[in-house]
Design a protein that fits this description.
By secondary structure, the protein is an alpha/beta fold. 44% of the residues lie in helices and 13% in strands.
Length: 486
């Protein structure tokens, strides 16, 4: 009997997929908290107990084992108690599309491996560049925002190299990238991978809330040029990871145009605004960027992975083209996506977004993203009105930053509670919140990306936060009484 998915094994395929989807459906229906709360030691024991070197146990037994090992201990982003990172619940049509693309196993690197898949991805990229406002732009799907940002900065580097009349190694040492402290970590990582100098990322001052100051950017560009450095790119952020704020893109574009610098907009988080009928104006100016990152697996409610880099000028993507006789020979005029992508073999992830748009429409996706932003506004008000909590700034998207402030607690004591509260909630499995640092002080972060989460759901999380803080403070007081250093 063959284990491969072929014409002769379709009955086995239906049976195993039906069983696996049924088990997932049961877990979705019965899950009562975002994670099991099992300890790392316990999970390690379960994982180590599986014999991966032995004989196979059969498909049904393997799926049953995955149900008991993985699904029983997975982190469930659809549960209202999950409010930690930029992970969203996913729309059902995209999940159905995921099963299709996995079964067919299309690779969209060359046309002869994908045919209509290539044409569908190109059509979807055309749609996405239209949302941005690129008149005749282009792009390609990627694995995520980190790859999209890296790809954009690679293109910016290649565009800058010919402008410097020096050997390439010296040119690279002079190139600099401008971003704020709130920019995604992938900006610095990309500079490293692109062979730029250790100090190539120049930090531009912000307004105190995380938004880049155009006047500070202008001054930083002038200063870099005066030092003989070459401005390679400016990275504006369309939704910072922690604060959820958006740089003033239009004014930044004015500065970039005046200096002739590549503008990249990292809209991995805020790209859902592109299809919002109420908040699209928050990204005004994005159409003036040279490149844009969008993460559909954040604010378009798509399964991982579903991201893209979009460019205003089609010719820019040619900088990464590489020809191989066996793959995409020069004499071949087929529309090979490998000519645009940094990847070779690449999943047909565009299918998920295609099916989602056809099933529920872009307007509905925009409404869903608006819903989580509306919820964040409400939660911010609740936190601001609670004497036991401290709101740390306001968001334009769907994050809420705050601290617990028990009566009489000093700032240092408040800071000390942050990690402990997060750990207590994580270990219980009842709620998951994130921790970050703002202006040198730690704080808790809620990232709200579930359109079905209610204000009452978040009130429950806040109650658990306060309860954990109270317990930790009591323990510290008791230890102090008996002379033990907590």
């Amino acid at each position: 009997m063959s284990e491969l998915l072929t014409a002769s094994t379709t009955d086995d395929y239906r049976s195993l997929v039906d069983e696996s989807s049924a088990r997932v459906a049961v877990r979705f229906a019965e899950v009562t908290q975002p994670s099991s709360g099992a300890s790392r030691a316990e999970l390690q024991r379960l994982v180590d107990g599986v014999d991966l070197a032995g004989s196979g146990v059969g498909g049904s037994a393997a799926i049953r084992e995955i149900d008991e090992l993985f699904l029983a201990n997975a982190v469930w982003f659809h549960h209202p108690g999950y409010a930690a990172h930029l992970n969203c619940p996913v729309v059902i049509p995209a999940v159905a599309a995921e099963s299709i693309l996995a079964a067919v196993n299309t690779s969209v690197d060359t046309y002869d491996q994908s045919t209509v898949g290539t044409l569908m991805e190109r059509r979807l990229i055309e749609t996405a560049t239209g949302w941005v406002g690129f008149g005749s732009g282009d792009g390609v799907f990627t694995s995520g925002g980190t790859q999209s940002n890296f790809h954009a900065l690679f293109l910016a580097r290649e565009a800058a190299v010919p402008t410097i009349e020096e050997p390439r190694s010296i040119a690279l040492s002079r190139m600099v990238v401008f971003a704020t402290a709130s920019s995604h970590f992938s900006v610095g990582k990309s500079a490293l991978l692109l062979g730029l100098a250790d100090d190539a990322v120049i930090e531009v001052a912000d307004d105190g809330e995380g938004r880049m100051l155009p006047s500070a950017l202008d001054a930083a560009l002038d200063a870099a040029a005066a030092e003989g450095r070459v401005p390679m790119a400016v990275v504006a952020t369309g939704g910072t990871t922690d604060r959820g704020v958006i740089d003033p893109i239009m004014r930044i574009a004015d500065v970039c145009d005046a200096h002739g610098v590549w503008l990249h907009v990292d809209a991995a988080y805020g790209c859902g605004l592109l299809v919002s009928r109420r908040r699209r104006h928050l990204l005004t100016g994005i159409e003036r960027a040279r490149s844009v990152t969008v993460d559909f697996h954040k604010s378009f409610f798509q399964p991982v992975s579903s991201s893209a880099i979009l460019v205003r000028e089609r010719r820019d993507l040619a900088a990464g083209a590489w020809h191989a006789d066996y793959l995409n020979p020069l004499e071949n005029d087929e529309p090979n996506q490998v000519d645009k992508s940094l990847q070779t073999t690449r999943r047909f992830d565009a299918l998920k977004l295609w099916v989602s748009l056809r099933a529920i429409g872009a307007d509905r996706i925009g409404e869903m993203f608006d819903a989580v932003i509306d919820l964040a506004v409400e939660v911010g008000d609740v936190v601001d009105d609670d004497p036991e909590l401290e709101l740390v700034g306001r968001t334009q998207l769907s994050t809420v930053l705050f601290r617990v402030r028990p009566d009489g607690a000093s700032p240092a004591e408040q800071d000390a509670l942050v990690a402990g509260v997060r750990r207590v909630l994580f270990e219980s499995g009842r709620a998951l919140v994130a921790k970050t640092v703002i202006a040198g002080r730690p704080c808790l972060k809620l990232t709200l990306l579930n359109p079905e989460t209610t204000l009452d759901d978040v009130r429950e999380i806040l109650a658990m936060v306060k309860g954990a803080a109270s317990t930790l403070a009591s323990i510290d007081d008791e230890l102090e009484l008996v002379g033990v250093d907590a």
